[in-house]
Amino acid sequence: MRLRVGMSATVVTLLLALCVFTSRAAEGVPSQISDAEYWKMISEFSEPNGYFQYNIVTSNETSYQYVLPELMKTARSGGAYLGVGPEQNFTYIAALQPRIAFIIDIRRDMMLEHLMYKAVFEMSENRIDFVSNLFSRKRPAELAVDSPVRTIFQAYATASADPMLADEHLKGIMGRLKTGHHFPLTSEDETRIRSIYLTFLREGVMNFSASFLSPGYAALMTTTDGAGKNWSYLATKESYDRVRALHQKNLIVPLVGDFAGPKAIRLTGQYLKNHGATADVFYISNVEDYLQHAWSAYASNVASLPVDTSSVFIRWSPGTVPFLASISDFIRSQGRR
User: Fold this and answer.
1) 239 and 248 in contact (C-beta within 8 Å)?
2) pLDDT, tens digit, for every residue of 231-258?
3) Apex CA 74: angle with CA 70 and CA 76, to 5°?
4) Domain covering 33-123+208-333 assigned CATH 3.40.390 in the classification
């Protein structure tokens, strides 16, 4: 993504934003962020919408849980999580239990999708209601709050799409974001959220052809780590509740950003520094494959993050399983520290 602004204006904007956030003494990550501060972070940390060649609405990484047993060997709860892409981030967040999470993606649509998710989490007391509200299917009568995740998706697989329910849910989503949280969404933002939400209505839980190589939501939520454990954020009540609680407190912050861009990663890093937090885990998927032309800027951005010796990337490449890599070692290998 190339920004459509002059370099001098970009630098001035970045410096002004840094001054605002560095003027605050380190005070620890807040237990809750106000709606006004949340939207300010999204607005000021984000960059212009960028291009990505594939349409991604749900994850296509069926092995995304494989890294979790190794990742969980080191206690990391209480720091910050950074990620990219759609719902697989919720599974990593549920397992790691960070104090705050930032999801940075080059597409504004992904930021809007995460705002849509935020509203759906807030309006859904439990996993059964969440799937109903996300896919616009009436809740199957046979499901209980403690139903196994596989049973949940088997039941919703035969439930019919309900356009009237979708309209009702969309009113609730927009009302929650605009009137409840007072987020100043543009008319174009509203149009895109509506389009994204109706994609879930049309696709259903089994197949998701509108998203590049997606195996479908049911497959993503019922897969395991390779040793038989399902870590998905819908696998248990506890995992779902952890993610929902962070959304209710505005502690999952979606940003529009190029990993080699001038603001998103750097201002996220500055925020963490100001609040005495480290970037414990940075899920980057295979974004590095698209950054060869801007590698130096990307490496400098990573070096701006507050990390320690246990901070790790989660990397993934098509046809492989994800793996961990030390962020500190990466920074040193690039000659940044």
Assistant:
1) no
2) 999 999 999 999 999 999 999 999 999 9
3) 120
4) no
The stretch 17-40 carries a mean pLDDT of 74
Inter-helix orientation angle 127-135/237-248, to 10°: 70
d(CA 194, CA 175): 13
Distance of alpha carbon 220 from alpha carbon 240, whole angstroms: 15
The CA distance from 115 to 170, in Å, is 12
The residue extents of the domains of the chain are 33-123+208-333
Predicted local confidence at residue 40, as pLDDT: 98
Which strands, in side-by-side order, build the sheet including 323-326?
252-256, 100-105, 80-83, 279-285, 312-315, 323-326
Q: Work out the pLDDT band at 317, boundaries 50, 70, 90.
A: confident
Q: What is the DSSP string of 177-236?
A: IIIIS-----HHHHHHHHHHHHHHHHHTTT--TTSTT---HHHHHH---SSS----TTTS
- For 219, other C-beta atoms within 10 Å of its C-beta total 17
Please determine, for residue 110, whether its predicted confidence score (pLDDT) is greater than 60.
Answer: yes
Q: Is 315 helix (H, G, I), strand (E, B) or coil?
A: strand
Structure tokens at 38: 């949340």
